[in-house]
Amino acid sequence: MKLLATFLLVWLGHSNAEGQVHYEGSATQASVLNAFEEDPNFDFWSRPRIFDAPVDIMVTPAAQQMFEDTMRSNGLDYRILIDNVEETVQAEKVRLRKASTVVAGEVTFEEFMRHDEINAYLLRLGEDYPDIVKTEVIGKSFEGRDLVLVRISSGGTNKTTIFMDAAIHAREWIAPSMALYIINQLVENPNNTDLYEDIDWAIIPVANPDGYEYTHTTARLWRKTRSPGTICYGVDPNRNFDYMWMGAGASDWQCSYIYAGYTAFSEVETQALRDYLMAYKDDIKLYIAIHSYGQYIIFPWGYTSALPDDNDELVAVGERVNAAISAVNGTTYCIGTSTNMLGTAAGCSDDYAKGAVGIELSYCLELPGGGTAGFDPPASRIQPIVEETWEGFKAYHAYIKEKFVDGVY
Q1: Which residues does the UniProt record annotate as the domain Peptidase M14 (predicted)?
Q2: Is 83 within 8 Å of 6 (Cβ atoms)?
Q3: What are the respective helix, strand and coil percentages of the chain, to the nearest 5?
Q4: What string of pLDDT tens digits covers the 409 residues of the chain?
Q5: Which residue of 32, 56, 220, 336 is most buried, as measured by CB atoms within 10 A?
Q6: Residues 368 and 295: beta-carbon distance below 8 Å
Q7: Distance from C-alpha of 109 to C-alpha of 99, rounded to nearest angstrom
Q8: Distance between CA atoms of 228 and 258, rounded to whole angstroms?
Q9: Is 402 designated active site?
Q10: Per-residue DSSP letters for 104-170?
């Protein structure tokens, strides 16, 4: 599947000579961009927002001239960043073919691992560390791949649990690497045994394995699942959860990259996540969806700009996490609700975890971007990203321990 597309950066909002941002007209400009979201000629790598910030869009050659004319006529500034996306994707494929093969059952943070390699590592951990690691297949993908969850625990039942999933959006390759690093540090670094002494960790490194494999074999920038529709494949699994499903920021058009499905939980992958969250809803005190890209610590709500009742606490925890990450290399994250940071997106997993399951502390972590498309930082960047962000996850753990184990709050 050849992309033959151009990647453009479009800015919303205007600044005057003094650098002051003028928001008047930005909502109209955002609606101009939103009108293209239903068109398969356009792939939004970031969401249109109503403030002075760039929006990343991939455009097919057939639509490029019309799109640029529309931008100019509506006063929207833009810049072409990648003139031929296909060339950059092919160059990456060549690099991956030359990369060393991962040893079966081992983990690497020098390359992006495939789904079977990831599962082999998880199963090996279960065999080598049976006292603390339990692997569980919580479901099958549409194409029959195992959805493997790892529970890391010192033992016991009904314990306070941190739950996280990664790669629900297939093209976000850095997300599984992050999940694997967390697992690796908890299990294979003896200095971290205190992190699972009183708190369990339940982690799914690849929540959308069919889509993830498809990005490696066929279409690098594929985002959705691989279930067949009547005219197009796949559903955006992060619009498929049954909380304000098919609201703002979701589409009922099969070919849209934000297609929410013909019904909520139409996808077996989101059903598996739902069932696990519901089964352990009394134990899970923190939910984290690992995504990329953009350096955001966001939380519900995604379906509305209204703030949650516990907004102050969610922001305060986010600030602790950001401070821990920033202390390593100076990397900083923006903190706030999903809608107010990135735009509306109904039917997302973090909204569902908080609104339907009752997990009050629910977050989406958007990791740093890079590489040819933002979703695949160069392999040399994997280690620095996961190492610095790991400090943020330790900050999350510290807060959960203080609140639910030590009773500080």
Answers
A1: 111-400
A2: yes
A3: 40, 20, 45
A4: 344 455 555 554 443 444 333 334 456 677 777 778 778 788 887 766 645 567 788 888 888 888 888 888 888 888 787 777 777 666 666 666 655 567 889 999 999 999 999 999 999 999 999 999 999 999 999 999 999 999 999 999 999 999 999 999 999 999 999 999 999 999 999 999 999 999 999 999 999 999 999 999 998 889 999 999 999 999 999 999 999 999 999 999 999 999 999 999 999 999 999 999 999 999 999 999 999 988 999 999 999 999 999 999 999 999 999 999 999 999 999 999 999 988 899 999 999 999 999 999 999 999 998 766 677 688 889 999 999 999 999 999 999 999 999 998 7
A5: 220
A6: yes
A7: 12
A8: 15
A9: no
A10: TT---SSSPPPHHHHHHHHHHHHHH-TTTEEEEEEEE-TTS-EEEEEEE-SS-SS--EEEEEE-SST
Residue with tokens 């740093």: 368
User: Which overall architecture, per CATH, does domain 103-405 show?
Assistant: 3-Layer(aba) Sandwich (3.40)
Sheet holding 42-44, edge to edge: 42-44, 54-59, 6-11, 78-82
Compute φ and ψ for 30, nearest 5 degrees: -60, -40
Among 235, 169, 201, 261, smallest CA distance to 400 is for 201
- Domain range annotation of the chain: 6-83, 103-405
Query: 106, 366, 388, 391: which is the annotated catalytic residue?
Result: 366
CB 323 within 8 A of CB 273: no
65 Cβ contact partners less than 8 Å away, ≥ 6 residues apart: none
Q: Residue 53: what residue type?
A: A
Choose among 343, 373, 297: nearest CA to 47: 343
Q: Does domain 6-83 correspond to CATH entry 3.30.70.340?
A: yes
Contact 206, 116 (CB under 8 A): no
